[in-house]
Automatic annotation (TrEMBL):
Subcellular location: Golgi apparatus, Golgi stack membrane
Ligase found in the keyword field: no
Keyword field: Glycoprotein, Golgi apparatus, Membrane, Signal-anchor, Transferase, Transmembrane, Transmembrane helix
Family of the protein in this entry: Belongs to the chondroitin N-acetylgalactosaminyltransferase family.
One Pfam family recorded for the sequence: CHGN
Primary residence: Golgi
Composition bias, Low complexity: 57-71
Annotated protein name in UniProt: Hexosyltransferase
Highest taxon listed in the record's lineage: Eukaryota
EC numbers for this chain: 2.4.1.-
Organism: Illadopsis cleaveri (blackcap illadopsis)
Amino acid sequence: PAVAAAMRLGAVLSALRPALPLLLGLSLGCSLSLLRASWSHGAAEERCLAPGPPALPARGAPPEAAEGRPVPGHEDFRPRIVPYYRDPNKPYKKVLRTRYIQTELGFHERLFVAVLTSKATLNTLAVAVNKTVANHFPRLLYFTGLRSAKVPHGMVLVAHGDERPIWLMYETMNYIHQHFGSDYDWFYIMQDDTYAQAEQVKALVTHLSINQDVYLGRAEEFIGGDEQARYCHGGFGYLLSRSLLLKLHPHLDGCRNEILSVRPDEWLGRCIIDFLGITCVSQLQGQHYHTYELAKNTEPEKEEEEEFQAALAVHPVSDMTLMYRLHKQFSRIQLDRVYQEIQDLQMQIRNLTALTPAGEAGVTWPVGINAPFLPKSRFEVISWDYFTEQHLFSCPDGSPKCELSGASKADVSEIIESAVEQLNRLYQPLLRFSKRQLLNGYRRFDPTRGMEYTLDLLLEAATQKGHSRVLAKRVSLVRPLSKVEIIPMPYVTEATRVQLVLPLTVQDLDFVANFLDMFAMNTLDTHDNALLTLLFIYHPYDAQRVGQVDVFAGVKAMVGELEKRYAEVKIPWISVKTEVPSQVKLMDIVSKKHPVDTLFFLASVWTEINMEFLNRCRMNTISNWQVFFPVHFQEFNPALVYRGEQTASSNTDFLRDGHFDRHSFAEACFYNSDYMTARTKLAADILDRDEVLESMEVFDVFLHYSGLHLFRAVEPGLVQKYTLRSCNPRLSEELYHRCVLSNLEGLASRSHLAMALFEQEQANST
């Protein structure tokens, strides 16, 4: 029996042997889970607290916080999922998403500023406030009782129709709540005789919690009132939180009827105290609201008190000149602080870099700025541009030498002055330098750090004893990239209808069939929201014979076939007779036949339309803001590039054998309303001299006669096959020259042309 039992046990073990690792793993996992659960339970029960009374809550925390209960107004802000519920009894409606994600998430803008002014000071003190601090605040409005006949430029003014101070304050608070109460977290109220340090006010609100009712300013006592109650002095400005404004709004009518006061700031302070029980404070959450009261005949340039330099608001400011002087002085103080912070940071960087493996050799120049870009191949080398004080030897139009003017001249002058100033700061009082001449100048733009300059200066160095000597010195400077700023742009969608305009001449007839095929395949078959208008340009001789022989009869037959194939599509055409097909004159005819909100895409017959580009045309063209002039990709002459070999068929190589034609401005995306506005200004400028239009393109109209952004960028979605375009000699010299250059540069690359010449020379030699 024992032998039989052993045999049975061996058979069982052999059967369980494949599952033995699984069983061991399960048992080990369960054991570890039990051990971990017992440790966690024991840690939760045993607290490392000494016996005694319960701990007190932190300073400023309510009593309920000590017991672990949630406190009203002190909720822990955590994301929560709101379940979706749809009433089955109501019809289904499509959910519309918000335009911006911050709206859907409930984000608010940070700071709104209201300036209280009057009819008497609107054109003086209010203008001074607008010129000093308006550019630093994200949103600023001016509130007055009665407005003057003309509102100063660049100011948004709200007039309430009554100059009584209490009424002005009441209407202002109502207006702010109604129009901006749900959009901003903080509201700063100031008078036009107050100078506020905008950057300091913005920094203050970033350090305050939005979850509290805040009434912050210069706290003042009520005359004959409660000793504990304080109101915020209006002359020094005060800050209100959004939560306080929302709670205060229902009581404003009661305050207007029940509270009597002469001063609007006292009236508002009494209203907040009586109905909300909140008093004005000058210090909150570790942040101080520093103010400074100006005495009569004060010289801001001579104020060196620490209280003045730390002030967020200064009052009273009696005139515009004093406002500008204060702004200049505080700007100088802020600039000195920034320079000192830069020096401190540079010293810390030097000290820390010495401890790194690279040692002091790892310190870049200037300290704190990114190191220069290191190219990995010769194709990544950033070239230097040579310049003198009069000329630039790297011109935008490709010419070898052009006159230094405009922004480039101002840039060079500023760099030279800065170089001499830095030398004097470094060597004074031993030496004093003055510029005699710029010998050589080099500059390049490094995208990792900014604009770099190298200057060879001929300087005259003078000593303290009056001795002077002329010497040459090389200096290097960097204009670093500053803080990146996001430029706000209007919202656009991809649902806008695009109206294609295609001008056609007799020379274009061989390419029309391919254009219509691509248009049908990429827009009509895909049901893209795009329409096409053809513009037939007849020569006067062809126009006279149109009854016998219509040169565009074949094109009209193709259009008819498309309209039969797509019953819902209509392709209109417009016939024009002219010897000089001016782009502006042709666009004038098309513009009059379409609504003002039409989005035009001015195309050429060699363009291959696709949905990708049409969407970019929609997104890059913004009504009353921006027009789009894409730079198409022009393929090279296959006879020179491939020389009998098979062309590249891979989609990844379609942008290899060609170039972006920067000389062509034939394609453009713009709204009809923007074109009509610019065209009206052009008509007023040229009067009846229509011959001027022959030397202009649509690009020139927008460039010189509109204040819109001209967005010109390379467009890989616009690929054109090679063709030798015919250049009309009757156009202006500039347009003709541009057309010739486009043809020449579109032949082939330098390497391809060199190979073609080499093969031709070899063939001739043999």
